[in-house]
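Re: [ENG-882] Designed sequences occasionally contain unexpected residues at chain ends

Forwarding the minimal case from QA. Structure tokens:
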């Protein structure tokens, strides 16, 4: 009896070991490499939003998806990061408009100068039917899923030579622009000499005098410390610049329904933080830039109309060829409807 009892214990122990050995291992978390292009500081809209997205995503998926944030262009230029989205080496990118247009040219349509009169009008258009239709077409053409639009700030001119009050003051100035043809066209239409320089190279180009000035939002002027080599700022608000939250559709389709919903849901509070922080800086641009020693000029309505008349028709004409009449006319109509015209 004792031998049979011992043998029974042996069989029980052996079956327990075999059972444990054959138990399925817990699945490793899915990793989202999340790239953006501002410093890794919580006072920077892109990074504050990235931290919010990471916390929300990991909580909503109970850790089945982890988010690794790569700030300040650590994964390369915007063009490189966006190519990574297309080929599946990067899962998520928050990029500026110039970078996006390098992989999807119609995004240039948002660079029509003097388009949106205020933030509220822009949000109505971007969050409405036009913004959704545009994102749907981008997905079809590129395999990149545009989840949300956020602010890159209202763009203004700065330079190291003299105040810019009218288009005539741009004549003879070398102005850095994003690597996008539409910005080159705008500067040339206003009488300046445009030079396309990547964001990462901009501070050096300004300090070394490669270019005299640039055009950017107050958020980016501060993030890049551009005020250190730029004495004059003109708050003309020529372009309502955008960031967009972009995800590889290949990665998105590999997720469970719960994980997909988490991405769709978590991008909204991240976008709102991004918008709120950037908008606050836009609305206090004169105070912020004066505070770091810049001489700030605010054009009159009549002067703004001079800029609009010089730049908008030429840019619209070019965009109808490069971005397509459908998107140009559709955006202009969406703006009119949002303004109640």
């Amino acid at each position: 009896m004792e031998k049979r009892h011992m043998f029974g214990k042996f069989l029980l122990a052996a079956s327990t070991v075999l059972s444990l050995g054959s138990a399925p291992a817990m699945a490793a978390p899915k990793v989202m490499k999340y790239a953006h292009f501002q410093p890794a500081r919580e006072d920077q809209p892109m990074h504050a939003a990235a931290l919010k997205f990471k916390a929300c995503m990991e909580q909503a998926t109970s850790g089945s998806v982890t988010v690794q944030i790569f700030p300040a262009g650590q994964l390369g230029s915007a063009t490189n990061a966006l190519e990574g989205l297309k080929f599946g080496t990067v899962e998520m990118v928050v990029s500026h408009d110039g970078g996006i247009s390098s992989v999807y040219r119609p995004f240039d349509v948002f660079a029509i100068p003097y388009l949106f009169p205020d933030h509220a009008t822009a949000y109505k258009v971007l969050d409405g039917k036009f913004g959704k239709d545009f994102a749907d077409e981008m997905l079809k053409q590129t395999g990149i899923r545009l989840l949300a639009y956020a602010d890159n700030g209202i763009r203004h001119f700065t330079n190291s030579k003299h105040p810019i009050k009218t288009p005539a003051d741009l004549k003879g100035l070398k102005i850095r622009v994003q690597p996008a043809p539409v910005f080159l066209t705008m500067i040339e239409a206003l009488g300046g000499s445009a030079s396309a320089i990547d964001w990462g190279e901009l501070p050096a180009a300004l300090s070394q005098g490669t270019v005299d000035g640039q055009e950017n939002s107050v958020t980016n002027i501060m993030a890049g410390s551009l005020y250190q080599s730029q004495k004059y700022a003109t708050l003309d608000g020529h372009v309502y610049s955008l960031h967009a939250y972009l995800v590889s559709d290949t990665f998105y389709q590999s997720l469970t329904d719960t994980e997909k919903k988490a991405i769709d849901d978590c991008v909204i509070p991240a976008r709102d933080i991004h918008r709120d922080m950037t908008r606050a800086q836009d609305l206090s641009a004169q105070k912020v830039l004066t505070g770091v020693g810049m001489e700030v000029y605010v054009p009159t309505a009549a002067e703004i109309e001079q800029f609009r008349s010089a730049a908008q028709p030429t840019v619209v004409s070019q965009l109808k060829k490069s971005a397509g009449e459908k998107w140009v006319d559709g955006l202009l109509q969406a703006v009119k409807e949002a303004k109640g015209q």
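QA comment: On inspection the terminal residues look reasonable. The two ends are 97 Å apart (CA to CA). Proposing we downgrade this to a documentation issue.
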